[in-house]
Amino acid sequence: MHSKKRKDVFLLVFLVLLLIAINYSFLDKQIENFFEEYETGVVERVIDGDTVVVNKTSVRLLGINSPEKGEIYYTEAKEFLEELVLEKEVKLKFGKEKKDRYNRELRYLFVEEENINKKLVEKGLANFYFPERNDFFYYIEFRKAWKECLEKGESLCEKSLDICAECIELQEFNYKDQEVALQNICGFSCDLKDWTIKDEGRKKFVFPEFLLDSGGIVIINVGEGVDSRDILYWKGEDYVWTESGDSLFLRDAQGKLVLWRSY
Question: What is this structure's pTM?
Fold first, then answer.
């Protein structure tokens, strides 16, 4: 009798474990949704590639930075986002930060469980943007999406075809001293006029009329000073790169990517 009861208990446990195994992904998602903070709403307007209006409230998409008006791929980013979310019901998931300094809501946007913020990075219509490296899980995901975008060479990830793109090497990226050193390793001079250096956010340095000689090194220093053939000053900024983590994007005069470094 006791043997039969034990067999029944074992069978019951086995069936329960089997049921859990079969429905694990479903249960996992339900548990995740239960504990996760989020809101829902309908996107009424797309302002640009990383800002929308939901329930009459301006929402800035977390973890990304898309081109500003007048920059390459601004229109493409905005139109792509409109296609994905305009007049659709979305889930707005909270991150570590709830609002930015402009009082905009900060959220990760989802449509039917698809992370829209990440989608923009995958398509090369935004770079990942985690100045404090908050939301570490999303940072890892978005950084991976950016690397995959680089492999495809799409939009913002498109490699420069400028003759000097293979000549300019990053010799130093000193975020503590807010200093960058670039060297021309080719046997001819490179015209860097209108080339740009940018962080993950909105800060951008535009090269003036500047010719980097063969073998020459130029230092870009954040701060005030008098430009020379060896050093250029990134004026108007107290700092550009954060100690907690940031990136450097060097682009040619057409906005195509020459090099990227992150820490």
Answer: 0.84
Tell me, yes or no, whether 143 and 215 share the same domain: no
Q: Which two tokens stand for residue 39?
A: 């809101």
Active-site residue identified among 36, 44, 45, 68: 68
Is the same domain home to 134 and 46? yes
CATH number at residue 96: 2.40.50.90
Assess whether 101 carries a catalytic annotation: no
Number of domains comprising the chain: 2
Q: Where are the beta strands (DSSP E) in 17-100?
A: 38-48, 51-54, 57-61, 64-65, 89-99
For residue 195, the cross-strand partners are none
- Marked catalytic residue, from 71, 97, 104, 141: 104
pLDDT tens per residue, range 88-117: 999 999 998 888 888 889 999 999 999 999
**For this structure, is 132 an active site residue?**
no
Does the active-site annotation cover 104? yes
Strands of the 231-234 sheet, one edge to the other = 168-174, 179-184, 217-222, 231-234
Taking a C-beta distance cutoff of 8 angstroms, is the pair 258, 194 a contact? no
> Can you tell me the mean pLDDT for 118-130?
98
Tell me the pLDDT tens digit for each residue of 234-245: 999 999 999 999
Residues 136 and 206 in one domain: no
User: What is the secondary structure of 37-61 as a DSSP string?
Assistant: -EEEEEEEEEEETTEEEETTEEEEE
